[in-house]
Amino acid sequence: MKVLLLNQCFYPDVVSTAQHLTDLATELVARGHQVTVITGNRGYDDPSLRFPKEELWKGIKIIRIPALVSGKGPKWRRALNFGSFLVACALRLSFLPRFDAVIALTSPPLISVLGALFAQLRGGEFFFWVMDLNPDEAIAAGWLERDSLFARLLDRNLRYSLRRAARVIALDRFMKDRLLSKGACAEQVVVLPPWSHDDAIEYDAVRRDEFRERHKLTEKFVVMYSGNHSPCHPLDTVLEAARRLEGNEKIAFCFVGGGSEKIKVRTFAARHSLKNIVCLPYQPLADLAGSLSAADLHTVVMGDDFTGIVHPCKIYNILRIGTALLYVGPEKSHITEVMAEAGDGAVYSARHGDVESVVEHIRQAELSGFVSQPHPPLANQFSKGLLLPQLIEIVESIPATEPLQARPVPSNNPTLLS
Fold this sequence. Notes:
Layout: E1 2-6, H1 16-30, E2 34-40, E3 54-57, E4 60-65, H2 75-93, E5 101-104, H3 111-122, E6 125-129, H4 136-140, H5 149-164, E7 167-170, H6 173-181, E8 189-191, H7 205-214, E9 221-228, H8 236-244, E10 251-258, H9 262-271, E11 277-280, H10 285-293, E12 297-301, H11 314-321, E13 324-328, H12 334-342, E14 347-350, H13 355-368, H14 384-396
Parallel strand pairs: 1-2, 1-5, 2-4, 5-6, 6-7, 7-8, 9-10, 9-12, 10-11, 12-13, 13-14
Antiparallel strand pairs: 3-4
Helix pairs in contact: 1-14, 3-5, 7-10, 8-13
């Protein structure tokens, strides 16, 4: 089977969507499929990184295209980056032949429209892997007015992508509900969370110590936020907790990753002259076990208005590591459901703005002396070994010659989440 993958991020980029799409591509090749990827030619978070224009890597044909401007920043810059990338992608697609399956993610917004239109014109089936939901995300973040012309355009194009998709992969049941409200058929939508990188990540005491020593965190109780820093994951409450705990020399806050809001963390630390905040870039996958193991308390943050719009997949790697967990976000979300399964243990929860509770939870976690304890079978529910084969099965279960209306969602796999 010939498969085309579309997303602005792919190997060797280290952001989450790049890693998950790379996992999918390598597994498809391992199963004998021909895989082509159209992606960006710069690092998503670090545009100074330049990648080869074309490359054959592990049997995957990678076509990398430019955007007119690169990097994040002001809204106009991001819009120009996304728009110029989409134009370049559309031009490149016009020279490609038919594929049996076209799989589009959601970076940038509207790339799913190109995938759906390409499949409609060339033939083959379109699969929509929804990593986040727009225009809902842009509206919730305050970037777009709900009734604006561009918001309505984005919504119309999202609905077109949903109508054309043979299957829609949602990340949790809250996202599925939103997709159904936008016209997706229940039979179309499969709930499949993004997996942990269990082949590369486990608690590593040696690399924990190396990471902590390298960044002067030895003998500290480390509260870590690792991942994308964006308006979808507002860090104000955690930052204010760091300010209030400045006098406790034993507690350090480590912010690892990137994103448009990373500058706010640095600015906050500088404005208040906080020496208990350490900011680090995204860590390569090979080093991720060490950086995640270095935390004594991991934080997962989700904005109040983003349930079903974004999906903090960082929780799955945290479960693999087994550290204590602090969640700051809405009371009802996929994260709170996962935490309920984890039990009462070293799991803490607070709402945005409740700085007192966050400070108290951090103090309790420090005093508890909790030792990392991975959470099988809970962690195993979100393993790459379990979930990636299910995604492959979804793609392989729909032969290109079979009529779309006659295709049921595979039901013979008891582990398929729904």
